[in-house]
Write a structure and sequence with these properties.
This protein has 475 residues and is α/β, with parallel strands linked by helices. It has 16 helices and 14 strands. Strands 2-8-7-6-5-3-4 form a seven-stranded mixed sheet, sandwiched between helices. It has a three-stranded antiparallel sheet with strand order 9-14-13. A two-stranded parallel sheet has the order 1-12.
Length: 475
């Protein structure tokens, strides 16, 4: 029995040793998992090792495929990424790689935040104002916003009718989500800011796009609006001064729109007034909520990014009837909570600069107007370009459709706004935004929130690039 046991032990050892000769290094752990160091090993286990390992690998692979679900929600799949952000990121990457790209795509002032505002932020840090604030914003800031809206816009609110958020974009999204039900319609005049339709989709609402025309300065026709309203129409979005066109709605036109709104009990108005202080006389700004009967129908959106050159401070606000604002606050409380305490202190200082931002904002607006006038004169000398002179904001929205159909050797056909922007980025190294991102493919958007020297260099490059182009449509 001892001899038999010894023989069995030697055989098992031999079998294990033989088996180990077939093992791969530690980089292949599956080969180890196929082994069983039982005293019952026999030569057949060696022959079956390869087959066993393959079966195990297939089994593990099948398990992984069965467990990993990379699908996304239909809501997210319905949303298009922001083309302005994508182009800005692409231009930034090229610049970081050493390509001398002139970036005229982003809607961001080139000015520094005014010194008094920046100093207020620094002092806030030094004095320890670095903790959470109430979800709706500090009482100090909300009270200051109420004073501003009363004095500058002629609309009266109390602090509990104000919600401060991490930028006006958050304010708009929360407003759309708070008031829209699945299947509701959000009425959006085109050209529109790129995010409006996508925000409607995120709320399971349907964006209804109403076209406007360059010959009418891209302003909404009231008759068209009335013809498109249904029992599902829930929200009308107005942006004045407009991104991307720079158009400003005159009070008379807003009053005609208000009369239509009043006849539709379900219809609310979201008035995006982020560019209200960047306006060129004789144009004037009118807040929609200030019109007769419109206060309780209007959600007013504003912020600090554009007029006060505070894009990185991320601060915006909503003003409206308390039950709507409270609903938006509920969404915010379960997502980001309150905005930055430091930014809110800086915003109080911004509102303390004086009426419409005081001298600091007036100087920026003066520079923007000079740049606008230079670009209008320069593009006016290009054959076939149609221009609507902006009355506010810092964008030109120019119609280049006469050039569509042109063919460039080594590039291809200019078949729309996106192709034209790709051509100008490639040939002139100037980054612009195609109009199809804003719902109007005939145009491209040019931001003049860069220095006059930079704009002069851009015009030189663009003009040179257009030498190879000829209007495909006779002008």
């Amino acid at each position: 029995m001892v001899a038999a046991a010894a023989s069995h032990s030697i055989q098992a050892t031999t079998n294990i040793a033989a088996t180990q000769l077939h093992l791969k290094p530690l980089s292949d752990p599956l080969s180890y998992s196929s082994l069983s160091f039982s005293s019952q090993l026999h030569p057949l286990s060696i022959k079956l090792l390869g087959t066993s390992r393959n079966l195990n690998m297939q089994r593990v692979s099948a398990i992984v495929k069965a467990e990993l679900d990379i699908s996304l929600s239909p809501r997210v799949n319905s949303v298009k990424p922001s083309k302005t952000v994508a182009i800005t990121d692409q231009a930034t990457a090229l610049a970081q790689a050493g390509v001398p790209v002139i970036r005229l795509a982003a809607g961001e002032p080139d000015f520094d935040t005014p010194a008094a505002i920046a100093e207020a932020g620094i002092i806030a840090i030094q004095e320890g104002h670095t903790r959470y604030t109430p979800n709706a914003g500090t009482m100090e800031l909300r009270s200051a916003i109420c004073r501003k809206l009363q004095e500058e816009n002629g609309i009266s609110y109390t602090p509990d009718q104000i919600l401060v958020s991490n930028g006006a974009k958050q304010s708009i999204l929360q407003a759309v989500m708070a008031v829209c039900s699945p299947g509701d319609e959000v009425i959006i005049p085109a050209p529109f800011w790129v995010s409006y339709p996508e925000m409607a989709r995120l709320a399971d609402a349907n964006p209804v796009i109403l076209p406007t025309h360059i010959s009418e300065n891209f302003l909404l026709n009231p008759k068209l609006l009335e013809s498109k309203l249904t029992e599902k129409s829930r929200l009308l979005i107005l942006c004045s001064p407009s991104n991307p066109t720079g158009s400003v709605y005159p009070r008379e036109l807003l009053e005609q729109i208000a009369e239509i709104v009043a006849r539709h009990p379900r219809l609310l108005v979201l008035s995006d007034e982020a560019y209200e202080h960047i306006i060129y006389a004789p144009a004037t700004h009118t807040s929609f909520a200030s019109l007769p009967g419109m206060w309780d129908r209007t959600l007013t959106l504003n912020g600090f990014s554009k007029a006060f050159a505070m894009t990185g401070w991320r601060l915006g606000y909503l003003a409206g009837p308390k039950h709507f604002v409270a609903a938006c606050g509920k969404i915010q409380s379960q997502s980001t909570s309150g905005a930055s305490s430091i930014s809110q202190k800086a915003a109080v200082a911004a509102l303390g600069l004086g009426y419409a931002g005081g001298e600091a904002v007036a100087n920026m607006v003066k520079a923007f107007r000079e740049r606008r006038d230079f670009l209008i004169d320069s593009f006016g000398q290009l054959e076939g370009v149609k221009i609507s002179e902006p009355q506010g904001a810092f964008y030109l929205f120019l119609d280049f459709s006469n050039y569509y159909g042109s063919k460039i050797e080594g590039f291809g056909e200019i078949d729309g706004s996106e192709a034209l922007c790709r051509y100008l980025l490639d040939k002139a190294q100037v980054a612009l935004v195609p109009g199809d991102a804003f719902g109007e493919d005939t145009c491209i958007r040019i931001s003049y929130s860069e220095s006059l020297t930079t704009l002069q260099a851009a015009i030189y490059r663009i003009t040179a690039a257009f030498v190879a182009l000829k209007p495909a449509v006779p002008v």
